[in-house]
Design a protein that fits this description.
155 residues, alpha+beta, seven-stranded antiparallel beta sheet, 7 strands, 15% helix, globular
């Protein structure tokens, strides 16, 4: 048995999200490694001190086949015409969940709209815990199993 969690994030960030927040997010995505982005001032630090932390682990940087959850691991941040778009699918070990919650709280604070911004699921479980933005505050909402005979949306 492993302590791996499936993590999915999908949200739009406000066009006014501070550069330091975007830089911190890019650091987790390891965008700089992929030469997709450069800080406007040429500085490689994100202002949060990650560059000085030897224990920093990029949470959203894995790409390619997933080992436990199936499918592909990905992470992408794109600038739209009037906001930022983020989509992430990752496998994370349990010991990294506190850092993920911290990152999700920061993202919720700068999310463009309220509602579901992601989910976290123990890889052997069927039901995830939703990550919900409520007016800039992250709410973790556990789901519960429904009556198997009570399909609401799918035939």
């Amino acid at each position: 048995m492993s302590d791996v969690f499936a993590v999915d994030l999908a949200l739009d960030l406000s066009p006014t999200a501070p550069d330091v927040v975007l830089a911190h997010l890019r650091r987790h995505l390891e965008v700089d490694r992929q030469d997709d982005w450069h800080l406007a001032d040429g500085n490689a630090d994100d202002g949060i001190g990650d560059m000085d932390r030897p224990d920093f682990v990029p949470l959203l940087a894995d790409r390619g086949p997933a080992k436990r959850i199936g499918g592909l691991l990905t992470g992408r941040l794109l600038q739209g015409p009037d906001h930022w778009l983020l989509t992430v699918r990752q496998e994370l070990h349990a010991e990294l969940l506190p850092e993920l919650v911290e990152l999700a709280e920061m993202l919720a604070l700068h999310a463009r709209t309220d509602g579901v911004i992601g989910q976290v699921r123990f890889y052997e479980d069927d039901i995830p815990e939703l990550l919900v933005n409520r007016s800039g505050t992250l709410v973790k909402m556990p789901l519960r199993a429904a009556d198997p005979n009570a399909a609401r949306h799918l035939p």
